[in-house]
Specification:
The complex is a heterodimer.
Chain A: E1 3-9, H1 16-23, E2 29-34, H2 41-47, E3 51-54, H3 61-74, E4 79-82, H4 94-102, E5 108-119, H5 123-140, E6 152-155, H6 156-162, H7 171-181, E7 186-194, H8 197-202, H9 206-224
Parallel strand pairs in A: 1-2, 1-4, 2-3, 5-7
Antiparallel strand pairs in A: 4-6, 5-6
Helix pairs in contact in A: 3-6
Chain B: H1 10-31, H2 37-55, H3 58-67, H4 72-124
Helix pairs in contact in B: 1-2, 3-4
Chain lengths: ~220, ~130
């Protein structure tokens, strides 16, 4: 069974090398999508043995994720894991996230920091994520404890159904909408998150929450025109 | 020529000059095939209406009475705002489409390059 880890990365040369190095121990293939970085993200990732795809221009995390998933499918992945390049996840938890898919029980396994352990999360961030979870659980009808966690695993069938159109951060909600729409079986898996200065700088700020809601509203509206 | 004022006001001259250049630019754009003929007609008609309103301000009062707003100036303002909203919406929709097309192209390029590198790998190291 081929496990491919997809890592979208934008200007992460400081962390992506170590992340790829660790992740390789738990996967047959690591695909890093360098989303138009202006630093050496792509080179660092390639040196550590990742297969690197490069976006000629920055298109956002959702766009990079979809490119990576398409590449993984084309290269015959059976299970696709999505992972972050900033080092906030633990690679050693990949087997635990993959297990429910490998056993054929579900099509999607979603990491949850609120079922697992979190280190160093600021209160405002926590409130924001809780609010996002309530909002997204309402709009998708899925019972979840953490809707905006980039650590996930998909069966090949689920990955084929995804087809992300949200280029920026709203793809997290889009994934859940796709799961609900296609009635894909899913489960949540506890994962550990390590926040540090670097991940906080790159992570979601409060203002972005409004961008995400706007992006989602736009999608709904434009689809009908 | 009852509606025409005896003397042009400065604002009227400025507006007429502006309209003249706006129409000129639109015709140039049409000649360069940058816009289709229906948009040329729309804009020429639009600026024509504006020119009439500038030359004979009383016509706006007629329009105002027709739609039931008090003054001619108000009617023109309402009309202008609605037009602007519509144009902004069109631009908005177009930008969205271009953004998503751009993503498709960027993705396709990245995947294509990956496929090529992949086939090179295979031919170079046939182990």
């Amino acid at each position: 069974m081929k496990i491919t880890v997809v890592i979208p990365a934008w200007n992460e040369e400081r962390t992506v090398g170590a992340v790829v190095h660790e992740v390789r121990q738990y996967a047959q293939e690591v695909i890093v999508v360098d989303d138009g970085s202006s630093d050496g993200t792509g080179e660092v990732a390639a040196r550590e043995g990742a297969r690197v795809l490069r976006h000629a221009a920055n298109r956002g995390q959702g766009a990079a994720l979809q490119t990576g998933i398409s590449a993984a499918l084309a290269r015959g992945a059976d299970i696709i894991v999505t992972f972050d390049a900033d080092g906030q996840f633990s690679a050693s938890e990949i087997p635990r996230v993959v297990a429910p898919i490998a056993s054929g029980n579900v099509h999607a396994a979603l990491g949850s920091r609120f079922l697992g352990t979190v280190y160093g999360m600021p209160t405002l961030r926590k409130l924001m994520l809780k609010a996002a979870t309530v909002f997204t659980s309402r709009t998708t009808g899925l019972r979840l404890t953490d809707t905006h966690n980039g650590f996930r695993a998909f069966s090949r069938r689920a990955a084929e159904l995804l087809a992300l159109r949200q280029d920026r951060m709203a793809h997290a909600s889009e994934i859940l909408h796709a799961i609900a729409e296609h009635r894909l079986s899913f489960c949540e898996v506890p994962v550990t998150l390590h926040y540090n200065r670097h991940t906080l700088r790159k992570g979601q700020r409060l203002l972005n929450a409004f961008h995400i809601v706007f992006d989602l509203a736009k999608e709904r509206f434009l689809k009908r025109t | 020529m009852s509606g025409l004022p005896a003397r042009f006001m400065v604002i009227q001259v400025i507006l007429l000059v502006f309209i003249f250049f706006a129409i000129l630019r639109t015709v140039e754009r049409y000649r360069d095939r940058a816009i289709p003929v229906r948009w040329l007609l729309f804009w020429v008609l639009f600026w024509g209406v504006v020119a009439v309103a500038v030359l004979v301000p009383k016509t706006t009062e007629y329009l105002a009475r027709l739609v039931g707003v008090g003054r001619g100036v108000d009617a023109v303002l309402y009309f202008a705002i609605v037009t602007l909203f519509y144009l902004v919406f069109r631009v908005f929709v177009r930008v969205e489409r271009m953004e998503s097309d751009l993503t498709k192209i960027v993705r396709e390029l990245a995947l294509k390059k990956e496929r090529e590198e992949n086939s090179n790998d295979k031919t170079q190291s046939p182990k």
